[in-house]
Amino acid sequence: MNTFQSTLESFQKREDALKAREDPFADGIAWVEGEIMPLSQARIPLADQGFLHGDLTYDVPAVWDGRIFRLDDHLDRLEASCHKLRLFLPKPKEEIKQLVLDLISKSGFRDAYVELIVTRGIHSIRTLDMSPAKVEPNLYLFVTPYVWVVPMALHSHGAAAIVTRTVRRIPPGAVDPTVKNLQWGDFNRAILETQDRGAQAPFLTDGDSNLTEGSGFNIFIVKGGVLHTARRGVLEGITRRTVLEIAEDEKIPCHVEDVPMGLVYSADEIFICTTAGGLMPITGLDGQPVADGKVGPITSKFWDAYWALHYDPKLTIDIMYG
Ligand code: PDG
Hints:
binds ligand PDG, 29% helix, 25% strand, alpha+beta, 8-stranded antiparallel beta sheet, globular, 9-stranded mixed beta sheet
């Protein structure tokens, strides 16, 4: 049995066990202002700037088969995002790390989507004074069962993407995409168009005929044995970084630069990647097959390597379940 089948079959078994759960945390668990509650009961204070002005940043690590993947890298990126917004982590990083590990342990989920949100906190409706002395950022945490941006069932044959016609990616001069943000106006429009056109994954351009990213994922193009991914206008994904590291190990060249749409339409293979689903093959684009319409060998190789790394003690922490 290949890695692909065994990885997904063992996940399926764990997911079946999850379905049998009926406890209050079975759908998710949240941490808000020091209290732990079922996710469905978690509330945001209305006066939080994160809600009123979208003034926040967030990060999402994931747990796979009882181990959390690259948690320190996600926490470092969260801290860097805070700095770019003139925010700071509401608690020392080590403390946040422990809160996250404890919350996962309490959740009991062996495969989980873990979200950390830092907002500018509670202020008057219109606050002009954003000096650090006036800011008391708020932290919100939640853990849910593992999330697949593209349904798991589509991984074997690949999903269908579209290049959106009705919306472009917001330019970096307006919203810095390297700050993980929830200003999803462009992505929400893209998702609606994707549904209208019967596909699963929207690709957004920079408005100048270069590829950027999709609604919650980075994009890789394979052409002539070389990988290409956008340099600018995208989140620097931890999964993208993992792919770049695998490419280096495998001595597969990778160009991180502008990716013109002409290259996308002539790709040999395309895959997308995110913490919420890992690597996902794209075998259709704008209603046409990508090359022969089959999942390609480079995509498969990276898919296997990516999941194998989820058992690497250097990149993972074992969750101590209660
Ligand atoms: N680009 C954007 C805009 C993202 O939101 C994400 C992650 C990525 C790239 C990939 O980054 P990383 O490899 O570090 O995960 N987005 C997922 C999915 C969100 C969703 O709801 O679809 C996340 O935030 O978990």
